[in-house]
Write a structure and sequence with these properties.
With about 350 residues, the chain is α/β, with parallel strands linked by helices. It contains 11 helices and 13 strands. The protein has helices at about 15-20, 45, 65, 80-90, 110-115, 130-140, 150-165, 195, 210-225, 255-270, 315-330; strands spanning about 5-10, 30-35, 70-75, 95-100, 130, 145, 175-180, 200-205, 230-235, 245-250, 275, 295-300, 305-315. The strands form 2 sheets. It has a 7-stranded mixed sheet. The longest helix is centred in the last third of the chain and has 16 residues, at about 315-330.
Length: about 350
């Protein structure tokens, strides 16, 4: 029996990616899609790429009306707004995979300091952090998941194995990430115009200013068993999709390149969606574009005593919608990789 699903916020970049991926999934049936701006419009008219693929119209968000029709909902709504919809769905017994930041934090005060007052704080304790490679057992059968952010996913996947193994220090970790423009969502803003970004690039919200920093530190601290602090500098680069991340940290003791790679190999030997690259190879965006894979690699600068961890992922797939479906597969007891094994678009 298939699982009936709704996608709230289906006309945004993450929402559209959910539709594209769900149409390939044999167990999920899309029965409702919402968009405030496009309510009443057939999805194929609004987005011709989906013409003939999905015979539904966008509707205004009404979780009370939609809840009786679905078993599970994906909420791809703006931060802070999502929690109100999720609260209605959960009261009706609908499982939820939320793509906003509203259910990623365990501490209400941390959430409030970055996003404002939480609309459903009573649900925070029920939510599982949605990064399957770190929290697979908790995700199995979960009823509410706060899917991990795109930048945190790109940082945590290469870093956590070293924290868990006690091989790196918990201070002085530096993260440099470069993201495609779709990470900012669909909005009209001069800073994201093609003419402003073509052939351009810039850092933004460095240090303690970006709200993904606390999310990274929360999960890194869980992995290490002690407080972890990092310095995060995100950059915007002129590509549509993808995140390239470099993490610089200090080994607690001597660490060779072979040992560093063996840490990653042991951590991800049985993982479908994390690919540890051969020694000496660096991740690149073309290899992961349109896929749910995250490619990781480790290098050691021995004279400087620095461990360099690299990753590449598609911010709309493993960084958002693909990850949400991976979590939903676990929530529903399906094969974790179901509907997600497409290869990268080449060239």
């Amino acid at each position: 029996m298939t699982t009936r699903v709704a996608v709230f916020g289906a006309s945004g970049y993450a929402g559209l990616e959910l539709l594209r991926l769900l149409l390939q999934h044999p167990e999920f049936e899309i029965v409702a899609i919402t968009s405030e701006q496009r309510a009443g419009q057939p999805v194929g008219d609004a987005f011709p790429a989906l013409r003939g693929q999905l015979e539904l119209c966008f509707q205004a968000s009404d979780p009370d009306a939609i809840a009786p029709k679905v078993d599970l909902a994906f909420t791809a709504l703006p931060h802070s707004a999502s929690a109100r919809t999720v609260a209605v769905l959960r009261r009706a017994g609908v499982k939820v995979a939320d793509l906003s930041a509203d259910f990623r934090f365990s501490e209400p005060a941390v959430y409030a300091s970055w996003y404002g007052e939480h609309a459903a704080p009573e649900l925070l304790g029920q939510a599982v952090y949605g990064l399957p490679e770190l929290h697979r057992e908790a995700l199995k059968g979960a009823e509410l998941v706060g899917c991990a952010g795109c930048y945190p996913t790109s940082v945590l996947l290469p870093l956590v194995p070293f924290l868990r193994a006690g091989r790196v220090g918990n201070r002085g970790i530096i993260v440099d990430s470069k993201s495609g423009i779709s990470g900012a969502g669909r909005k009209v803003d001069g800073a994201y115009l093609f003419t402003e970004l073509d052939g351009n690039g810039r850092a933004y919200k460095p240090g303690r200013e970006h709200r993904h920093g606390p999310e990274m530190e929360q999960e890194a601290t869980r992995a290490a068993g002690e407080d972890v602090m990092l310095s995060f500098v995100p950059h915007l680069i002129p590509v549509t999709r993808g995140i390239l991340t470099s993490v610089y940290c200090r080994p607690k003791s001597g660490l060779s390149a072979a040992e560093a790679n063996s840490v990653l190999d042991r951590a991800y030997a049985n993982e479908t969606f994390v690919r540890v690259l051969p020694v000496g190879e660096t991740p690149n965006l073309a290899a992961v574009r349109g896929t749910n894979f995250c490619d990781v690699a480790a290098f050691v600068d021995e004279p400087n005593g620095t461990l360099i961890l690299l990753s590449a992922l598609d911010n709309l797939v493993k960084g958002a919608s693909g990850q949400a479906i991976q979590c939903a597969n676990l929530m529903q007891g399906y094969s974790e990789s179901q509907g997600l094994l497409g290869t990268a678009l080449l060239p």
